[in-house]
Amino acid sequence: MPATVGAPARLSPATLLAGVAILVSSFVLVLLSIHYKLFWGDEVLEYYADTKPGIGAILFGQLHYPSVAEPAAFNVLLHLMRKLLPAATPEFSSRILSALSLLVTEVCVFRITLRLTGEHRPALFAMALPFLLATFSYAAEARPYGLLTALFAVALVSYQAVVEPNARWRTIPLLGLFLSL
Fold first, then answer.
1. Any residues with CB less than 8 A from the CB of 130 and at least 6 apart, and which?
2. Who is most buried in 9, 97, 102, 172, counting CB within 10 A?
3. What band does 20 get if pLDDT is binned at 50, 70 and 90?
4. Residue spans of alpha helices (H) in the chain
5. How far apart are CA 1 and CA 135, in angstroms?
């Protein structure tokens, strides 16, 4: 069996509806979890590390006075989320990036499984797996685990697109692979 079977040409309306239902239900449950979960001690440090006035100040603080061990790109993305959502609570603005990362992970796992099996049912089941496993708890925290999982899934989807034998162009998948790594 080849490493890449290939995805069916079109998704049926039932598959699309089931996929959207999985995405919406997981996002709503993550939002509820974010709402009722208090900050952990390291999440408070993360919040204060990202509330500096600008991106340069965040990078300077991470370089010279690191208070958190997360990658600097994560701090910059959280800072941008706080700028996009100024009226949101600190818990929500700190954790929404991880919640959105769960959705990206689910879509990428669906795509990976669909390309490997060529069938919709296993792909839908695989799409629900990140929600059913520990990735759900990562999605409700202000930590980089959910984002790193999503970037890894994007890297796998990009890799599959690059090595596909019938690919007409490989520039965009290579760019996605480069950016995700």
1. 26, 102, 105, 106, 109, 136, 149
2. 102
3. very high
4. 13-36, 41-50, 55-64, 72-84, 90-117, 120-132, 135-139, 145-163, 171-180
5. 30
What lies within 8 Å, CB to CB, of 70 at 6+ separation is 46, 143, 144
Provide the residue type at 180 as one letter.
S
Residue 119 to residue 47: CA distance in whole angstroms: 43
pLDDT in tens, 105-131: 999 999 999 988 888 888 888 888 888
Whether 49 contacts 62, CB under 8 Å: yes
